[in-house]
Design a protein that fits this description.
This protein has four helices and nine strands; from the N terminus they run H-E-E-H-E-E-E-H-E-E-E-E-H. It is of the alpha+beta class. Strand 6 and strand 7 form a beta hairpin.
């Protein structure tokens, strides 16, 4: 009987660990299919979200996703009164909006896709301004690795419109 009990305990612990590594159905307050997120990141430890975004106040802020000791996904939510030059943001060398090898894609929204991230912008009348910009950065993808560009585009085509719906844009 003790062997069966030990086996049950080990199974429960293994299941609990797997659950901690699973990708949630919402990231930074936006629902998104975990399969799309899984194309971009591979959790190696417990999934932790550090979210400073306050949608009701429309204040520019980051949301970071960590797994183990590493940040694996960065999102930066930004509201402005005027439209921003996305190429200028993408080529910025700072940590907030820089992405490698940005290319414009045909989309309902202004969107640039890079090898390690993306930036999208849309009109969005809120307390914080008239335009909303979302930057996605994937620090674990090597800047010259263009193999993920299509996955990044698929993620942004789902995540950005879903985020706009959560913002109550007018």
């Amino acid at each position: 009987m003790p062997v069966i009990l030990l086996g049950l305990v080990l199974t429960l612990v293994a299941c609990a660990r797997a659950a901690n590594n699973e990708i949630p159905k919402a990231i930074c307050g936006t629902p998104v299919e975990p399969a799309l997120t899984r194309l971009l990141v591979a959790p190696t430890g417990s999934w932790r979200e550090y979210n400073r975004v306050d949608r009701s106040r429309s204040i520019t802020a980051p949301c970071l996703i960590s797994s183990g000791d590493d940040v694996i996904l960065r999102l930066h939510f930004s509201w402005r009164t005027v439209a921003t030059d996305l190429m200028y943001l993408a080529k910025d060398t700072g940590a907030v909006s820089g992405i490698t090898e940005p290319r414009s894609v045909s989309s309902r929204y202004k969107t640039l896709i890079g090898t390690d991230g993306a930036i999208s912008q849309a009109p969005c009348r809120t307390k914080g301004g008239n335009y909303f910009t979302l930057t996605l950065q994937l620090p674990k993808i090597k800047p010259g690795d263009s193999a993920h560009r299509g996955d990044i585009e698929r993620f942004m085509r789902a995540y950005f419109p879903a985020t706009l719906r959560t913002l109550g844009c007018r």
